[in-house]
Every structure is written in structure tokens, then in C-alpha cells.
Design a protein that fits this description.
The longest helix is centred in the N-terminal third of the chain and has 30 residues. The protein is mainly α. Helix 3 packs antiparallel against helix 17, helix 7 packs across helix 9 and helix 9 packs antiparallel against helix 10. About 45% of the residues lie in helices and about 10% in strands. The chain starts with 9 loop residues before the first strand and ends in an 11-residue tail after the last strand. Strand 4 and strand 5 form a beta hairpin. The chain has 17 helices and 19 strands. Bound molecules: 1-deoxymannojirimycin (DMJ). 1-deoxymannojirimycin binds next to helix 11 and helix 17.
Amino acid sequence: MPVASLLPFTATPNRKSASPTSFRLTEKFILLLVFSGFITLCFGAIFFLPDSSKLLSGVFFRSSSVEAETSVHLNLGFPLRVLTSKVCICCSHGLFALFTGFSPRQGIRVHISKALSLKGATIVDALDTLYIMEMYDEFEAATEWVESNLDFNMNAEISVFEVNIRFVGGLLSAYYLSGKEVFRRKAVELGEKLLPAFKTPTGIPWALLNLKSGIGRNWPWASGGSSILAEYGTLHLEFMHLSELSGRPDFAEKVMNIRKVLNRLDKPQGLYPNYLNPNSGQWGQHHVSVGGLGDSFYEYLLKAWLMSDKTDEEGKKLYYDALQAIEKNLIRKSSGGLTYIAEWKGGLLEHKMGHLTCFAGGMIALGADGGPDDKTGHQMELAAEIARTCHESYARTSMKLGPEAFRFDGGVEAIATRQNEKYFILRPEVIETYMYMWRFTHDPKYRQWGWEAVQALEKYCRVEGGYSGVRDVYANTPNHDDVQQSFYLAETLKYLYLLFSDDDHLPFEHWVFNTEAHPLPVIKKQNVEIRH
Ligand code: DMJ
């Protein structure tokens, strides 16, 4: 089961209870007035706000624009950028009120999943998006909520990975963007709560942790009691920052030790199996994936190097070696000319690519100019091919939204054939790749593809209370799942916004995005102290 398909932290749009039909007539009228005022404001914003109004200034942002507008930008890019950002802002504005309970009438509908039961995921995951989109009033309200309500002292079992990428990552970004001490304090406090997860014979952390008792365990479905590569391998960026901000070396030591354990192991064909037993330090089943269960491990090797101001040479080598093994063993081209990344099961290929795997286009583009043997051109081509394949997986559906997984066998290409792989849960990976490809190539097709996604999201996913996933992207009318994942606000909307922003808005030389799209600053050389 892919990690991110576990539907962890979500907010439920709850179209029924959000309906104003239960209100009295006067309340209906007031609501209508407020709503129409809001719509007018949004349209006003579309037409009158200066394009430059979105640009933040300050230490983490270059002050002047680096990109000359081409005629394509002028014809398409400018209106698209403004429209996209304003459409997203207007909608997320309403959503935010709904899901955080700031709207007095509508109440909190934060969905609490059984194993991942920390309250406030949508709020914390959305903090930096609000800040980046300059929604400062909502950001202030969310800050207040964090100050008075975000509490980690509970008897609850949480996913170490999900809490790290969404809560620790979200709090760290909010701190670095706003400078508000409360976020630093809460991030470090939460980081400390996660430390007992590392109490295993190898130091490879448990997947699940009871925050009160400090007792950990692994997912019962994971091969032979194993920890998951994409989970224990996606702590590095946040933990390095926790050490930076707290002055405590143990956060960094915990994640550097994970590398040590991995370095000692033989890798089949140079590949990293998804399962590793934290007691024995041995691999479980030899399943390899750049999608669910594996994905962000590879992403964090590259980003560890970039975030260390390119001083973490070990991270760099591990990433490029892994990529080489992936290219050799997993990357294939279909007879129709589409490049895809297959899954590997004990040496046999399953010709299926997950929506999650589509993030790899962006990752490969991001790492393209640092690799050995001057492979920049080759890696950029590979990234562009993956972006094209993922776009095809959208284009070949009725709704122009991508399925959870698509196949290249049985006579199909980039199409989901199994009913349980046809859903779309507002995932960001394809848009994430468009954003990176746009930044590195300025090929207008990436903005065009992003715009197609905006239109499809508006047409098929927008519901009264927010946005909802759909159960079958090949159907003509949407069957909503009535769930809005917290990553929709954290990632999907943020990457769309950045796709239509200037390059100096969170420039890559200063910022690295964690796997939940929370920007973390590069730790400048003079501050870096990699602990071996
Ligand atoms: C996000 O929670 C993160 O991007 C994670 O790494 C896997 N994917 C989901 C969104 O699809």
C-alpha cells in the first residue's frame, strides 16, 4: 500500500452540513450579501491587483526580477498567473475559514484518521501557503490557533513520517518565513516528541509512535515488521533544521545514523528495497519503487545536498548513484514513445507508474546540473519525458485529471486499467513537476498544462465546501469522495501559484522544498556542520 495513499490528514468538505439551507431567511440574506461581496473582491483583485503585489521581499528573496517576459508570458502567462493565483486564493480563503472553524457558523471539519491523530493538520500544512499568497489576516488567525490549540501532549499514535513532513515541516517553514518564535518553539517541541521512535536496535525509526508512552511499532502490513524507505528516509531535511534551531546535535545524529545503516547494506542492482527491518538491519521484501513507499527517500538525498549549500558530498553521491540504478533497472520507454518509471518486484518489472512517481520529473530536473559526467542535458531530457508521460496520464482521461496509477501493458499506455487505480485525490506531484520544468526551461507548455489542471480542478473537484477528490477520472460526471487532503493546500495550490509566479519568488538557490512543499532555507556553508 503506498504510504501517501493511506489518506492520512484530511479535511472533509462535507457539502451537506456546509449548506446554508438550514439557516433562517435573514441569515440567508446576510450570507448572500457577504458572499457576493467576496466574489466582487475576488474579481476586483483579478483585474486591479498589480502583478508585483505577490512578490515578497527580504533576506530569502532576490529583490529584482531576473526574467524578461516573453510574448508568450504576456499573452498567456500574465493573465494565467494572476487568474490562477486569485482563483486559488479566493477558494482557499473560503476553505480555510471552513476547515479551521474560523467561520463561526461552519465549525471545524478536520478529519482525524485513526493512526494519525494530531489535530490541526490542515491549518499547519496551510500556514506557509497563506503567507506566500500574502493572506496575512488568515495567517495571523492560524498563528493564534497554533499558539492556543496545537498540543502534542496527547495519548495518540501518530505516523512519524506524516507528522514530520506536515507538522514539523509546516512549522519550520512558517518560522523561517514569518520569524515568529512560536513556530520555532513548537517545531522543536514536536521534534523532541518524535525522538523515542529512534529507540530501535539499529536506530532505524518505527513508523508509528505513541506520543505519550513513547512506544513505537511498525505498520502491521509491512513486510516482516519492516520500516518503510520513504518514511525513515524522509526525516533528514527537517531534522537538520531542528538541530540548527535548537542547538541540539541529536536530531542531526539520528538522521545521519540512518545513512550509516544504509551504507553498510548490499543493494540489489544498486537499488534500495522499500522494506528494512529495524531490529535486524536487514532488507525485507525486495520491492523497489520511485512512487509509494520509496519516493521521497531519493528526493531527500538530493535535497540534503542542496540544503547543505552543496557541502553534503555523501548525500550527493548517494543520490546520483541511486538515480543511475533507477535509470538502468526501472526506467523504460513504451512502444508509443512514452518514458515511464516502472516498479521492481524481486527483479521482475511491473509496468505501472503511480501518480506519486510523477514527482520524479521535478526531482531529476532539480538535480540535472550537479551530476557526474556532465549529464545535465540527458537528465533534463529525461525529466521532460517524464513530465510529458504524466501529462498524458491526465490528457487520456475524461476529466483531464490523473489517475492514482497508470499502466503500460495489456495494450494500454498511461491509462489506469483497474477500477481501484482510477481515483484522483488532489495530489500535487504532476503540478510539482510542471513547476520545476517551467523554472528550468521556461517552455510555455508547462504553464499551459498547469492551467489545464486548474480548469479541471475547478470543473470536477470544486464543491460547495471546498475541493474534493473524485473516484473515477474516466467517468463523465464526478463522484466525489468528499475529502480534501491537507496536501491540497500545502502542495497543489502552492505549486500552482509558483508555476505562475516569477522565478525570484522563493528562488531555488535559497530555498529547498520539503516533500510536503514546505520551503526550508539552504543552510549556508559557514553554518554547516555535517555530523558523521
Ligand atoms: C504528500 O504528502 C507528500 O508529497 C508525500 O511525500 C507523498 N505524497 C503526498 C501527496 O500526494
